[in-house]
Amino acid sequence: MKDKTITTTITRRKFLATTGAALVFPAILPSSMLGFGRKTSPSNRINVGVIGCGGQGNGDTESFLRLAECRVVAACDVDQTRLADMVQKVNTQYGNQDCRGYRDFRELIARRDIDAVLIATPDHWHALIGVEAAKHKKDVYGEKPLARTIAEQQAIVKAVKKNHCIWQTGSQQRSDANFHKAAEIVRNGLIGKITRVEVGLPSGPKNPKMQQKVPATTPPPPELDYDMWIGPSMMMPYVGSRIHNNWRWNYNTGGGQLLDWIGHHGDIAHWGIDCDQSGPLEIEGEGDFPPADYNWNVCTRYRIEVKYPNDISMTIAGGHADIRSGVKWIGTEGWVWVNRGGFESSNPDWETLKELPEEMRKVKLYRSRDHTRNFLDCIKSRQATIAPAETAHHSSIPGHLGLIAMITGRSLKWDSQKEVIVDDAAASQMLSRPFRSPWKLA
Ligand SMILES: NC(=O)c1ccc[n+]([C@@H]2O[C@H](COP(=O)([O-])OP(=O)(O)OC[C@H]3O[C@@H](n4cnc5c(N)ncnc54)[C@H](O)[C@@H]3O)[C@@H](O)[C@H]2O)c1
């Protein structure tokens, strides 16, 4: 089993069964539509399994539940209470008891009647679960950022490509008409040649109670399988304020506001400058980091300066008053600023438009008006979604590199074709992180 990604216990029988199925039926149609040796889903529905039943997992699942084209048939969480709540929510919605609960995502992924999975776990799990799902030919709705490190993102991109999976990233701003209009204005040259981009992200966390030394540790609560929660990350003593929702404030499991939001406004900024397949040339940054012995260790205020090809400079900042929240592209002939529910531009006529008039759309950006439906449509058509893995990978790269530049205190040169940091061995080490045994990413 030399190509096995995950080396912890998955039975040989299950492994052979899934591998065999994959060889016979490449993922051209949703597997439940093929009806091979298992229940064919009614009305050719897409069977979905949910992995991670927290805040965003619940939100995303509600989006699946309202669409008749799919059926949520399974849920997985390492917190029994959260899992039970999710299973009950799904079963109440459908008026039956069909949704099954799992503690181990590998068992859910191994189910052959499941076509697609949602990955809404904390970031430190994205790569292992994403690659496992891809190897089982599942299509994936994966939350942003694509993964915890650039190397983990590369592993997802590779596995998705190799297994011909459909991947939708939870960068849902791409399916919002306001962001689409803004990016199309920029891409159609209506503000002239782009010279500068400003990306304003949140700062913080701001809760002063939490900005303190590590509190006394306690045993994990009985409903939580903490070993499976921490998974591939370094084992840390259990501290309640580092777990649900707050995992993002510690680099062992998350990436702070910077990596939480790079997959939103950073993603839109890249859309406008046509960087879905490429990336920056140089990057430097500075940030305010709490003392090393604090409970939460992510930087709370940051400023990253990025140089892109074609003399485009970008500032990505959180907590700096001169960089407004959202995305602002500045060109030789005008500017556009966009945020959730906000749009301003140098040309007031653009502000009242719902979308760019057809005659101005010489460059037509991918249009989706419902992120979840776009995923389901693409599962059927086998066309790329509006936010595929490769796009999400490139969108997050400035965030990952910015963090490395802040930690090393050095300006970094990035080769976006080879995807390597040039001439900086210590910084290059930070493109990946060690995995706690027995977890391995092939
Ligand atoms: N698209 C968006 O707008 C948006 C908004 C918020 C969060 N997110 C993303 O969604 C993801 C989840 O964030 P959240 O705020 O819901 O976090 P959360 O802590 O509320 O939920 C995560 C859940 O995953 C579970 N989990 C942990 N390890 C698991 C494992 N091995 N198997 C199964 N379940 C496991 C946890 O027990 C928890 O219930 C993150 O990647 C985050 O960046 C996206």
Short structural description:
The chain has 442 residues and is of the alpha/beta class. 33% of the residues lie in helices and 18% in strands. The protein folds into 2 domains: 12-173, Rossmann fold (3-Layer(aba) Sandwich), CATH 3.40.50.720; 176-366 and 390-422, Dihydrodipicolinate Reductase, domain 2 (2-Layer Sandwich), CATH 3.30.360.10.
> What integer is the average pLDDT?
91
Shape: globular
Query: What is the architecture of the largest domain at the second tier of CATH?
Result: 2-Layer Sandwich
- The largest sheet has its strands arranged as 13-12-11-7-10-9-8-14-15
Rg, Å, rounded: 22 Å
Walk me through this protein's architecture.
The chain is of the alpha/beta class and 442 residues long. The protein has 2 domains: 12-173, NAD(P)-binding Rossmann-like Domain (Rossmann fold); 176-366 and 390-422, Dihydrodipicolinate Reductase, domain 2. It has helices at 12-24, 31-34, 55-65, 80-94, 105-110, 126-135, 150-162, 177-187, 226-230, 256-272, 348-351, 371-381, 389-408, 425-429; strands spanning 46-51, 70-76, 100-102, 116-119, 139-142, 167-169, 194-201, 282-288, 301-308, 312-318, 326-331, 334-339, 342-345, 412-415, 420-421. The chain has a 9-stranded mixed β-sheet with strand order 13-12-11-7-10-9-8-14-15. The longest helix is centred in the last third of the chain and has 20 residues, at 389-408. It is globular, with a radius of gyration of 22 Å. The model is unreliable at 1-41 (pLDDT under 50). Bound molecules: nicotinamide-adenine-dinucleotide.
